[in-house]
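Supplementary Methods S3. Complex input for the zinc ion-bound model.
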Amino acid sequence: MTIAAHDKDAYLTELETEILETGRDGSHFFAVTADTILYAEGGGQPCDRGTLGGSAVLDVQQVDGVIRHMLDGPVDLGPTRMELDWERRYDHMQQHTGQHLLTAVAADVFGWKTTAFHLGERVSDIELDTPDLGANELRRLEEAVNSEIPAGRTIRARRVSRDQYNGLAVRTRGLPDGHTGDIRLVEIEGVDLNTCGGTHLRSTAELGSLCLLDTERLRGGTRIFFITGGRVRTRMAEHEARTARLRQALDASNDQLIDEAERREAQLRSLSKKLRSVMNELAGLEAARLASLSQRLIAAHWEDRDMPFLQTVARNLVVEAPRTVALLTAGADDDGVFLIATGSNAGLEVSELGRAIAEILGGRGGGHGSIFQGKATRLDRREEALGLLETV
Ligand SMILES: [Zn+2]
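Predicted complex, serialized as structure tokens:
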């Protein structure tokens, strides 16, 4: 194959061609064709997808200078038909062309050089060699890019010899190592002349608009995240759906959403603080109630309490009833917590006993001295655990 069909016309969606070679590459079938409209991954642009001879093309890769179409099934040698997943490709053409324009404007208007490009599934990014890019500059860059879009600047690809190339003012991140032969140039009329092997739109007008979303500092430069083309409306629709749900959840208008969320967060913090205080008081009362039973062995269970509650009860209980051994549990039988507390006069060390109780309760835990605590999945065996405690 000399120059692929997509290289000459990026808008071809079907091609009659010929399968010259077939084989297996790991778990995939592959085919090499006389010509192709499917772009092989490279230059920051992901590969195309489509079909070949009725099989789905899952991946397109250049292997030793030959383009392999990775397939989900076998195909026969000979004449065949190739179809392109146009929606995916057109999106790539928009993001890729948008990058050219963004790179050109960032360099010409602001003097920032692009050092990397990544075309993502939802968001793409470029890296600029400027360490400081504030919100104002980001908006100015976005304005400058968007003012070029409706101008409908023509985009063309052509090939030139090395000599011709050397005589042109080409913006490039450098030719690939070992490059020989002609050099493919992509021109956005009046804005940019660049070396590139990717697929591009015919006109900047097809971008519609380009939005700069966010920045990230890295290695002395700045990464800018952007979307363009159809992704702008897709993302807008996602934002609208999300804010509609937020309006409903917070019972507020768009303008009130942040204030309302912050108000509720503050309210929640305040309520949590009050709840902690009430629970501590309640745990103190429960400890006093248990201590008043004047039993050596005490067992208590609370279905809707948690470990911090058990800990507060235990702390109070061992002070009020120093001879006590207590088994405190909380939660559901198959998803609960347990705590063994012994008073200073109980004459009992809990670490070994605790492990035996944990085993009965189908859980794990740890502790030493007067407290052993853990999680349990068999709180229905509380009586059995108590039976063991009675024997010590
Ligand atoms: Zn390009």
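The longest helix spans residues 257-291. The chain has a mean pLDDT of 93.
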